[in-house]
Amino acid sequence: CCVCRQPRATINCWQKDCGRSFHLPCAGEGGCVTQYFGHYRSFCWEHRPEQAVLVAPKANTTCLLCLDPVEVTVSFGTLACPTCRHAWFHRGCIQGHAARTGISAFRCPLCRDSEDFQMEMLYMGISIPFRLPDWDEQDFVALNARHSRCDASVCCCPAGREQAEPEGPWHLLLCGSCAAEGTHRLCSQLDSSTEQWECCGC
């Protein structure tokens, strides 16, 4: 095994002409990746896939799941959502999240994208079990809830931040990029023809 140097390593790097082998339990410690779909390919630390993110996380960026800081560079231990590109996770945290949610509910906790997010995580070696979520019905409803409050610095609505009407000044627009923040039209001085809005973070 190229990680622990013990015999009987049966997983070979998929890259041609690479002679490295490793044990499955040693993969994470050695920075190796196994893809749990398709041909179930495995890669050593030198030939593993890398995320095609445009920017590294900003300083003081935290993992959305454990709230501890992530590395300031793209690395084996740090993964990002390919859709919103604002959600960063530790590899171990997102793997634990996938194990709890299962394929039916596994999605980006920030932007709620599932299709692109799942394929990216599978490509990067995250195992997503084909089963129902490991939580009760109330937790499942909360996870899929749509953001429903005004996050403007000053909310002008007399009924409060939770008020949302289908049209008019108290129509609630969600951020077109992350959908994790919202604003009433009037609170952000948006006219009735505005259909797209982005929060300050996006």
TrEMBL record:
Pfam families: PHD_G2E3, zf-HC5HC2H, zf-RING_2. Keywords: Ligase, Metal-binding, Zinc, Zinc-finger. GO terms for cellular component: nucleus. The keyword Zinc-finger applies. Residues 63-112 form the RING-type domain. GO terms for molecular function: ligase activity; zinc ion binding. Residues 1-48 form the PHD-type domain. This is G2E3 ligase. The lineage of its organism: Eukaryota, Metazoa, Chordata, Craniata, Vertebrata. The gene is G2e3_9.
